[in-house]
Amino acid sequence: MKNKVHPYIPNMVPEVKEDMLKEIGVPSVMELYSCIPEELHLKNEMNIPKALTEYELRRHIEGLLNKNVSADEYINFLGAGCWQHFVPAVCDEVNQRSEFLTAYAGEPYEDHGRYQALFEYQSLLAELVDMDVVNVPTFDWGQAAATSLRMAARLTGRKKILLASTVAPERMKIIVNYGSPELDFDFVDFEKDTGLLDMKDLKAKISDETAAIYFENPSYLGFIESQGAEISEVARENEALLVVGVDPISLGVLAPPSQYGADIVCGDLQPLGMHMNYSGGQAGFIATRDEEKFINEYPSRLFGIVPTVKEGEYGFGDVAYDRTSFALREKGKESVGTQTALWGITAGVYLSLLGPNGMYELGQAIMQNSQYAVKQLNKLPGVKGSRLTSPFFKEFIIDFNDTGLSVETINKKLLDQKIFGGKDLSKEFPEYGQSALYCVTEVHTKDDIDHLITSLQEIVTN
Amino acid sequence: MKNKVHPYIPNMVPEVKEDMLKEIGVPSVMELYSCIPEELHLKNEMNIPKALTEYELRRHIEGLLNKNVSADEYINFLGAGCWQHFVPAVCDEVNQRSEFLTAYAGEPYEDHGRYQALFEYQSLLAELVDMDVVNVPTFDWGQAAATSLRMAARLTGRKKILLASTVAPERMKIIVNYGSPELDFDFVDFEKDTGLLDMKDLKAKISDETAAIYFENPSYLGFIESQGAEISEVARENEALLVVGVDPISLGVLAPPSQYGADIVCGDLQPLGMHMNYSGGQAGFIATRDEEKFINEYPSRLFGIVPTVKEGEYGFGDVAYDRTSFALREKGKESVGTQTALWGITAGVYLSLLGPNGMYELGQAIMQNSQYAVKQLNKLPGVKGSRLTSPFFKEFIIDFNDTGLSVETINKKLLDQKIFGGKDLSKEFPEYGQSALYCVTEVHTKDDIDHLITSLQEIVTN
Amino acid sequence: MERIQRKNKVRDFHQAKWNEPIIFELHQKGERGVDIPLSDQAVAAEVGNGVSAIPEGMLRKEKPNLPEIGQARVLRHYVRLSQETLGSDFNVEIGQGTCTMKYIPKINELLVRNPKIMELHPLQDESTVQGMLEIIYNLDVCMREISGMDHFSFQPSGGTQALFAMASIARKYHESRGEAEQRNEIITTIFSHPSQAATAAVKGFKVITLHPDEEGFPDIEKLKAAVSERTAGFVVANPEDTGIYNPRIKEFTDIVHQAGGLCYYDQANANGLLGITRAREAGFDMCFFNLHKTFAAPHMCGGPATGALGVVEELKEFLPAPIVEFDGEKYYLNEDLPQSIGKVRAFHGVAQTVLRSYAWIRALGPDGLKEVAQTAVLNNNYLYSKIQKIRGASAPYVKGQRLEQVRYSWEQMAQETGVTTEDVQRRMTDFGLHYWTSHHPYIVPQPFTLEPTESYSKADLDEYIAALEQISEEAYENPEIVQDAPYNSTIHKLDEQDFLDHPEKWCITWRAYQKKTKQPERI
Amino acid sequence: MERIQRKNKVRDFHQAKWNEPIIFELHQKGERGVDIPLSDQAVAAEVGNGVSAIPEGMLRKEKPNLPEIGQARVLRHYVRLSQETLGSDFNVEIGQGTCTMKYIPKINELLVRNPKIMELHPLQDESTVQGMLEIIYNLDVCMREISGMDHFSFQPSGGTQALFAMASIARKYHESRGEAEQRNEIITTIFSHPSQAATAAVKGFKVITLHPDEEGFPDIEKLKAAVSERTAGFVVANPEDTGIYNPRIKEFTDIVHQAGGLCYYDQANANGLLGITRAREAGFDMCFFNLHKTFAAPHMCGGPATGALGVVEELKEFLPAPIVEFDGEKYYLNEDLPQSIGKVRAFHGVAQTVLRSYAWIRALGPDGLKEVAQTAVLNNNYLYSKIQKIRGASAPYVKGQRLEQVRYSWEQMAQETGVTTEDVQRRMTDFGLHYWTSHHPYIVPQPFTLEPTESYSKADLDEYIAALEQISEEAYENPEIVQDAPYNSTIHKLDEQDFLDHPEKWCITWRAYQKKTKQPERI
Ligand SMILES: Cc1ncc(COP(=O)(O)O)c(C=O)c1O
Ligand SMILES: Cc1ncc(COP(=O)(O)O)c(C=O)c1O
């Protein structure tokens, strides 16, 4: 049925086409392609399956999706950069509103709501991280960290970056790729039993060429880096900037890095109301003080509040637009484009819903649940519930070395128990041998954790 | 945590309560209940489980729902008054829009959109049934039929109603309950092998006391009643009205009852874009000619188009509001209240999407698929694919008598094959013995039907 | 930066206005909104074109005169219309007294979109719907606690249908005792919902309507005078539309019972009473709750909905069948109700509403439900206090004693300024607020009924009050402002003339409009 | 009934205006938006209060200064803001040229709300995500057909990131050949998207920007002059922003290849080319498609999105890992790309977008995709023809030869009336339409770029044209009307002064605004 008008293409109607061609003054649509040289015209039909109707499509895609097992069917202990948290239904309602879903880059007039929602997002996250400036979201934590470090380099006029070796390996790859060849990276050791930054090594490596120190808190390995103030002190002594990556969901109970001296804070919004979406929920943020020199180094859009000609109206617009690559191309600060605005709006909704008390209770519930898990794990033969001795937030390393089993084996068996076991660390952190990074949050009930314990008990004792 | 402020009840905040009580001038909220005599106060706490948080609630309800098996997991051949059809995603998008979802009984001003959408629904359905007036939807087909017949009684000043005995038994119960004690019902026989109305019996039973004849087309048993014009003739001769119930999804290919003489047409909107929802998708409609005497007998709301004081604006309002029970209580026409408006809007969206060609193709696909099923069924030993010899639309009676198996047994075995077999007719129509009413629509692929055939083959030959 | 001054007392509002054509005007021959799944070619090869089976005379000759429109344009049309509709998610929806407009939790909407309810067929084998049946059963059990009744049916799909079902039960009950002919009167009150009277009449009863005493209470003496051996039943809301609770309700039901009638309670709106007082103790034999009111199911532009119908044990067998029961192991549909009135609606009623209300109850728990009631009453009394201070407004009848709603009056303002309650209604839309006058008849002159429910904060109530104050000021200073309103709504004042009441002028469908305005009928 | 006359050429429109406060102004101490699941009591009994484990100095001392607001009010705030946002579902979104705003099929949105994608963790065992991997793989295969490339990565989460990834590959490629130091220049054109130049610079390249010849074509002589042994790569869109297709593109890529550079193609917007011509035949080594443009994923206020990155076989090993492959039995993640640039984004990119685009392609099939291209080009040329007839408007450069978009100019109108393209932009919102000027720099003076895509009907285009015509008339008759616009938008003209560019005045957060306007900072 080659000529059936497709529901998505109204002007396929032959009579309408006719009319329009007449206005244009050409005999056929292909005429309009005459600018493309004959030899570049695709001769064959594309080898793509024939069109499906909506119903067929639905059955086809749902058939494929049904081959997946989701983290709400099984019990999931995977984290490591993408975390399962409670998503309030209002978050989904708002980000599924077709106005927000299909808007793009409108002006402050017809998209007033988008501007306000993003300004509010900036403002809410600013409270969480206790800083005065937050950007319109960027891609993800890794990219936000890379940009933060590039900003630091521009701000200090230096090129050397010191990274904690506990930075998430995936993020490290992003940071290095975004940073090179402009920046030089060096890695600071950590204490194997606590995970904490090796202050001696830090002091040995820092110099007056250091642009910034970067660490994460809570770290990739879950522990809380408690030396924030000391690290900041070292940075300050060397006139380097301190950049800290943070899981914002911890900030109801953990001190925000600004309070222990961070100059730039970055992290991922995914925990704040985004479903995991096989990693489609990531979104990065960057926060700084409200100082001109910082603002001028942001590549991102920054929405500011302004009056309109009518009393009482709030308006919004782009602050210091002329620094962006939209305005200046390669002379702008790095680059900007489509990023993750809808997740920013959603994170704003999330923070509005939870408020100060919700964020506190949430942090508390996560810590209680994860501590409970570790306590129970410690009772299992050959299992160390937490390999590290430092306090942790929601993630922790389970050490299976003494069970004689590999993480791979354990995870396969857990799968039979409808459990997604934690991330195998044996490649990324071979120093911990057969260990795995587990994540426990507020979504885990006592029963869920107990089911893990019983299943592991079975596995390690058989 | 008795005093934690609930997210749904903002004014639980103690300080706010305090303030408000001060304005009111009473010391406590319970004071405001002093009008309720002490002995009527509930003394004990209600035996209802403690509050769940949103996440707990979600797990609880989803846990319950997971005990269900839905008709898109299994292959479903049940119809009999609730039918599985393709629902375009746009229908869901529109009826899930929070404006429509949460609106109620606003005025033509702030709810202009609701009025227009319902006026358009009326107008679109009017084209489908080829009549000039359609009401804002009522509860369901049964109730719409009952009201149609009561309208006919008031219009004719008579009380006797002749019903085809093939009217759906469930609907019959509704009709009789809504009709009694005001109306007298009598039942007209049908021909066992065709399902068609027994014209002799009709002629014998009709009289100058007959207000209306009612039959359904396609009938509950699936066959097409081809004697519409003759029945209409009989009605006219006796100055009775002809009321016909119709499955509107058939009207892309079947003649609408108005074209063979129906005075009032009624039916169910559920096929036009409503999910089955365990019967939550039902909605009734009534259609008539645009004659004052008909309009005046509608109990329902009827939205009409009017100008506003500004040129070029369409406005809408209630036509002949004073006939309703809202205006006149027991002196109004029957009763009106919350009915099924959102399904009316949805049916309008559905008809706008399908248009004349979609409705035709749909009718055709249904007929082809159901004919195919019957043809294959006929090949099975002991199975009569269609017990009736008349042409049918989407439903048909499979006669299993010669297999020696009961429908109950067959359906249990089909369930093992992930098939919901058709409705067991052995109680409602004992004259057909072990027979079942099957429904085949556009949602059934050839594979689905073939799977039914293979499964039945297995069952009847083992 | 200077602070942006926001001094408006009322909201500087404009509703979305798209001025959309009627859907038929979007027709473009050849466009398609959606493709439907055609039959497999192998199927068509087997059976041919399918429609040739249609008997002589039953084939539709001309395709229906529906518009042809691309999918994006259909969507655009309807989402624009949606923005022109003031759903309760968007406003401080307290102007629709008696309708109990409350917050519709989004989690519940998410739950009802689960295919495991959306795609259930009502005739599925019970083994495949145990979860659904359990939800229905659980809600039944909660409802019993809330009301003191013994069994619930969720088949009635609205308050009006529940009232009809109760009238049907009353008739059947008296029939079962051989008194159907004799007992042909139902007593109600004028401040009860019109459907009480209307459904009694549908069921063939004579309706006796009691008017209140001077203080606004149902008049017990009038009830005594009304009851007799013809009394089939008594139906009432309490509080009635006025928000006044009848403290002598138990005496009322006793009187009716003594006369041999049944008492049924319209608890469509029980929002001020949850956990406080119940139908059973007040002497009722039956009651119903509108799940779409008190129990937080959305109103959906007017349904689908549920009137949850509860009865005492003795009336169980009269309920519409089936009801859901539990045998200790599994849930099942009990069709065995020997005196059943039959059915009022297809299958099992509106399952989504049942799920939503069950979820809402579980989100609140027993304490929360009681807080709902208390806060609804607090909010109402706050409003009551404030509104009586507005120039030209009053709340007729006894002072105080209002539970969840109040019927107010602009009688004084209308007399002094000529501005009517309908004018106020239109003007309120200019501030993004909805305002309903009241049920007919207007016993209270120039009426309006407000019900703030528990869902609105003090700030919300203050916003609503400020709008009423502003309108009162306008009425006294410049009444035309109010009379010519609205200005900020999607459309301007209707030019009704007799377009809605004259058979030659009303147009209930586009085709009727085309005919009456002499346009070609087919697009 | 008299027919209601609707004579407006432009829409009688008003956008929703709620004048909402900033969310912090809705704070009421004690209110709660949602309850989160607390730990089980037994858990708390085991471990205590949990937070006491936080090391000295790392405990947050004061709770974050977030507002406390009930759930209904939070929702109401955000849904009101949504109505104040002109999503493409609502308008004739052709005013955002280069952005390929097209119909976003609702079926795809329904599909991505399936928990079987929403609730997948990216590190799940491959056996538990076979369906997801198959979707990704299938899209890869379709993209290969459409582009002629050999492998795709969906990790880049936007066009800009895809451009960055391509610049990274270029660097790595030359590194692998020991030419990283030497080859440090990327050549692009001024009418290509700013991100091409910007990302090349991020990756440490020197950017050489070619300007067009008089007819608007990229200038081949300038390219020849630009290439050298320092050339790392050449990146270009074709058509560029002007909509003009460079017919000599193969010569361009040949020249670059001869100089030893890689050629990468910005196909963010390939809407006019689907099934017509491909990157491979034009000589490119890499290309990317914005799934949120050509392939019908929604723009979501600006992401999340996907820049689908395709490369020829030789460059496969440079792709960001992992990519999805199929071993004949199962789908798996291939991490083994020895020269991989590493990563550009966490895990696998935005899976929802991949699903949506795959669904869109399957809904169209090969014929449909070609129809998309042809209709997009037809629509664009219709608009092009019409707009050139509007007083004061023009389309600089060569006549004709435009594919899917055109960069227009109001230069003449600005000179004659003082009305600028920014004025027109604001005025368009009064008719419910969006209009974007163009990318900087304004080589074309007073520019605007329109791209009608295949999604809009002739009637839609005519509505857009009518609005431009009306504005042109207004500009010539009464320019203030245009200059003081908008009037029917959510807000009025911004009073920008230097509020956005002066450090003491800009306020990027509410707390900064509170400080700068001397308000208490904590709520
Ligand atoms: C007290 C009362 N009774 C009955 C009804 C009728 O309910 P429904 O609209 O669901 O038919 C209502 C609702 O309007 C009501 O408030
Ligand atoms: C041609 C072209 N290239 C690159 C981009 C950048 O894409 P994105 O906005 O996804 O970063 C765009 C979109 O604006 C574009 O149109």
Automatic annotation (TrEMBL), chains A, B:
Domain Glycine cleavage system P-protein N-terminal intervals: 9-455
Pfam family for this entry, one: GDC-P
Classification via Gene3D superfamilies: Aspartate Aminotransferase, domain 1 (3.90.1150.10), Type I PLP-dependent aspartate aminotransferase-like (Major domain) (3.40.640.10)
Source organism superkingdom: Bacteria
Record keywords, A-Z: Oxidoreductase
NCBIfam families assigned: PRK00451.1
UniProt name for this protein: Glycine dehydrogenase
UniProtKB/TrEMBL annotation, chains C, D:
UniProt domain Glycine dehydrogenase C-terminal: residue ranges: 373-477
UniProt-listed Enzyme Commission number(s): 1.4.4.2
Segments forming domain Aminotransferase class V: 157-298
SUPFAM superfamilies the UniProt entry points to: PLP-dependent transferases
Catalytic activity, as annotated: N(6)-[(R)-lipoyl]-L-lysyl-[glycine-cleavage complex H protein] + glycine + H(+) = N(6)-[(R)-S(8)-aminomethyldihydrolipoyl]-L-lysyl-[glycine-cleavage complex H protein] + CO2
Keyword Oxidoreductase among record annotations: yes
Keywords of this entry: Oxidoreductase, Pyridoxal phosphate
Domain of life: Bacteria
Function: The glycine cleavage system catalyzes the degradation of glycine. The P protein binds the alpha-amino group of glycine through its pyridoxal phosphate cofactor; CO(2) is released and the remaining methylamine moiety is then transferred to the lipoamide cofactor of the H protein.
PANTHER family cross-referenced by the UniProt entry: GLYCINE DEHYDROGENASE (DECARBOXYLATING), MITOCHONDRIAL, GLYCINE DEHYDROGENASE, DECARBOXYLATING
Alphabetized NCBIfam families for the sequence: PRK04366.1
Listed name of the protein: glycine dehydrogenase (aminomethyl-transferring)
